[in-house]
Design brief:
By secondary structure, the chain is an alpha/beta fold. It has 3 domains: about 120 residues, Periplasmic binding protein-like II (D-Maltodextrin-Binding Protein, domain 2, 3-Layer(aba) Sandwich); about 80 residues, Periplasmic binding protein-like II (D-Maltodextrin-Binding Protein, domain 2, 3-Layer(aba) Sandwich); about 70 residues, Alpha-Beta Plaits. The protein is about 25% helix and about 35% strand. It contains 9 helices and 16 strands. Strands 4-1-5-12-6 form a 5-stranded mixed β-sheet, sandwiched between helices. A 5-stranded mixed β-sheet has the order 9-8-10-7-11. A 4-stranded antiparallel β-sheet has the order 14-15-13-16. A hairpin with a 6-residue loop joins strand 2 and strand 3. The two termini are about 35 Å apart.
Length: about 290
């Protein structure tokens, strides 16, 4: 019987990014009639979609061999999982927030009611700060509770805009969180599962690296080669080939997307010609 690698995918805001990553890596997915169990073109993958809050605990328990989860839920659930690769999808801050018209001194005069999805993270923070508090665990949006039903919330935010729109201000930044590819430690001891998980890591990492880079190809006149080629940025060294008829050189380099606009202007000024820019699907460094 063929062995299966059990992978759990997160519902919610990062779901589509994870699906796109798997598809780009070649694990082409399609949803079955049961929407929570996608099917992959790689038959050894057994996939299931669950709430992100539950994923670290289930991976730690061995119900699944690997999955995708935020740093926040890994820490909140105190799950013993192996972090295989930081994906960086949807980075957020876990913050404490209070009504804009309240000050710390106002709240320190009484026992405050704090609401959050993050019970362990919240209690650790509140005890470190020596707040006198009552805690209530809630699901979903916390920002609607203050000021009538809570004095403080502890929640995740990307920009802080939603907090401001609900009359709240950030008091403290507790931690940063983004998405990770995680695995069960026992699964990583199994040679077959380890090989498959590390294969996925290599492909995922190659896609993430490629998303931040482009390839530039250009022609360099013979009389400009000595001034241009030494200045070409690249991952290791530029790829250089002679043009037909000793007309000069063709050069290929891989560079960060953020630097490409200024780099092209510099190359033109140095005398490079016929510059082409390509997107890259994967970058595998060895």
């Amino acid at each position: 019987m063929e062995r299966k690698l059990r992978i759990v995918l997160p519902k919610g805001r990062i779901y589509q990014k994870v699906i796109d990553l798997l598809n780009e890596a070649g694990y082409h997915l399609r949803l079955s009639g049961r929407e929570l169990r996608p099917i992959s073109s790689h038959e050894h993958l057994q996939l299931k979609i669950l709430k992100p809050q539950n994923i670290p605990s289930l991976v730690a328990l061995g119900s699944h061999d690997a999955g995708f989860a935020g740093t926040d839920w890994c820490i909140e659930s105190k799950s013993k999982v192996e972090n295989i690769l930081e994906l960086g999808f949807d980075p957020v801050k876990i913050v404490s927030a209070i009504p804009q018209n309240k000050s710390i001194s106002d709240l320190q005069k009484k026992k405050i009611l704090v609401v959050s999805e993050y019970e362990n993270l919240s209690k650790k923070y509140l005890e470190q700060k020596k707040w006198d508090y009552l805690f209530m665990r809630v699901s979903g949006s916390c920002e609607v509770f203050p000021p009538d039903d809570a004095d403080m919330i502890i929640d995740n935010t990307a920009t802080g805009i939603t907090l401001k729109e609900n009359g709240l201000k950030i008091l403290d930044e507790i931690m940063l969180s983004s998405s990770n590819f995680i695995a069960n430690p026992e699964a990583m001891k199994d040679p077959w599962k380890r090989e498959k998980i590390l294969e996925m890591k290599t492909l995922f990492n190659s896609i993430l690296m490629a998303s931040k880079r482009v390839m530039l190809e250009m022609n360099i006149p013979l009389d400009k080669a000595s001034s241009i080629i030494p200045q070409l940025p690249c991952m290791k060294s530029p790829t250089i080939a002679k043009l037909f008829g000793d007309q000069g050189y063709s050069a290929k380099i891989v560079v960060d997307k953020e630097s490409v606009t200024s780099l092209i202007s510099k190359l033109i000024a140095l005398g490079a010609r016929d510059i082409l820019e390509y997107n890259i699907n994967k970058v595998i460094v060895s």
